[in-house]
Amino acid sequence: MTKEPGDDPTPKGESDDDHPSSNSTPDAVMPSAPGPDLPPQDAIDDRPPLNQMAVATLVTGILGMGCLTVIFAFVASRQLDRGGGRGRGHVTGGLAALAAWVIVALIVGFAVQNRPAEDSAPAFNPSLGDCLDWNGQRLDSRVVPCGDPHGAEVALVFSLPEGPWPGAERAEARSQAECRERVLRRYGTRAPIVNGQAYAVPPTSAGWEGGDRRVHCVVAAVPGSTLAGRLPDGDTGFRLWGELRRADCFTASLEKKPAGARLVDCDRRHDGQVTHVFELPGEAFPGVREVEKLAGDGCTRELRLVEEPQADLRLTHVTPTRDGWYQNDQRTVVCLALADGEELTESVVRPE
Length: 352
What we know:
- This protein has helices spanning 52-62, 66-83, 88-113, 168-187, 205-209, 288-301, 322-327, and strands at 131-132, 143-144, 152-159, 196-201, 214-221, 238-240, 249-251, 260-264, 272-279, 313-318, 332-339.
- The chain has 352 residues and is α+β, with helices and mostly antiparallel strands.
- It has 3 domains: 52-113, no CATH class; 119-221, no CATH class; 238-339, no CATH class.
- The strands form 2 sheets. A 6-stranded antiparallel beta sheet has the order 6-8-7-9-11-10.
């Protein structure tokens, strides 16, 4: 059939593209984008849930919260026993941490309880004139008969002034200074007996708060020796070397290296006389050799003070020790003129 012009079988408004021919090639299929990676089926967490009380047990145990840790551990254990689940390791860890806290607390408490403290010292309550089995430690001292060999005697008892507790160090310093001063006034020396020394037992803070501000001033024998009988009532004439003054005459057994000598009148028989006394300068102890040199030079310069005696003289000197330098602020050099043979019977020092 002849197709007439204008006879278009395609409806108006449509195109060939809307009606593809049967022999046209179909559209190509586009590949799809890859999807997200999924975990394998056996990697999915199918563990039982973690017990929250067990977690609380671990946290409170690490923080040392004792009561809460025990309570949480008890509840968590009951829940785990009944319903299962995870968390027994947390409970064990929390209890272990709490146990560590308890051990630390016990160690610290034991150390504090056994730490020596000024308040832990027992009261020192001997009476004036009591003799003591003294070895320098108040905890070991006890009252003993004065007729037996003993270490010390209570020479003085006095109280420090009222006021707030000054602290252990200041109470010790004030007690020692006051004790030495009172002993010096009573006996004329800091050591009322040969090879003896005065010590102060200060009050404690506990006693101070209770109104006990007493200081016990005891005169004790040097280590390795003991006292026999009671202390003298007053000045016996004994002086430590550093307490002697120029022109003092004395008796002493120098071979025994005593701590001092006994004063006597110069017109009576005596072993020696003080020719000169001076202080060494400086804050630090200069050493034994330097002290000896300074002492020798100083005493030699003052030989003009020595008269020609009837008997021969041996010139020497007594120097401060390191302990005396720092502990008693003792820096005195004492120059001596000793009888070399017969005793002296007159003064060998020219008057000033």
